[in-house]
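pinning this so it doesn't scroll away 📌
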Amino acid sequence: MAYFVWPVLVVATVLAGCSGIRGTGSDAALVGGDDRRGLFSLVPKSEKPLAKARLHFKNEDYGLAEKYFRQAVEENPNLTVGWMGLAASYDRLRRFDLAARAYKVVIKQTGYTTALHNNMGYHHYLQGNTAKARKHFNAALAKDPGNPYVLNNLEMLESPSA
């Protein structure tokens, strides 16, 4: 997917430069800054749901992220990153039952990785179960000492507001 970075940046730069120009009729939608469909035209069709899901998750649009992660795993049930994103989206939507089911798929596909332990720790943290959260964060840290995401989550867990 890294090979798409340069063309996307070029398209984004061109679109940003054109955002103030308004055409007439049907050209207005193509040139205007509000239309982002052009960015996704560079992504292969099989990766579009995943790319959209990641964008929406990054923008904290968890409902749309869930929709596209679900679409991605329906198209490719072996897409571990899709299942992980789906579980994280469900966590943010406070649908912990569905998140747990998605995490079970990830466990079957990859076993307990650092990322899985970290996400499951956050899953339990959101539910208020700090003991299980700490267990998963510590397991993630044991697999990858110094991981900044895990360290940040452990720090969050230890903060007085947790």
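📌 and the second one:
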Amino acid sequence: MDLTSKQRAQLRGLANGMETILQIGKDGLGDNLIKQVNDALEARELIKGRVLDNNLDYDARRAAEELAKATRSEVVQVIGTKFVLYRESHSKPKEKRIQLTRQREKKETIQNSK
């Protein structure tokens, strides 16, 4: 699922007041960390992480992209040492999930259907 720029902006706004719940230290990205990220995404849908200074192997962009690939999530934002990931939850009821703005249909599609 590719996020639109409006959806990314919406998620960035939601993540703005969130606490960082994930820290990537000198051990890097192990199986245990990926499981924790999967569990956190299923419970929260939107998480904020940080790469600590003692991690010499990863910068925030690389860590976010590799975690997103491993957890089938989307990178919403990367700033400095922090990053935000999003994945829609399948265990939460639909009304309790984050409701993303819908992508409008292009005018061409609407005109062609008339």
